[in-house]
Amino acid sequence: MIRLLDRPGDLGWVVLAHGELYATEYGVDATFEALAARIMADFAAAHDPAREAGWIAEIDGRRAGCVLCVDAHEDATAVLRVLLVDPAARGHGVGGALIDTCVRFARAAGYARMRLWTIDHLAAARRLYEKAGFQLVGEEPNKHFGVGGNAQTYQLELI
Question: Looking at domain 2-111, what is its CATH homologous superfamily?
Answer without folding.
Answer: Gcn5-related N-acetyltransferase (GNAT) (3.40.630.30)
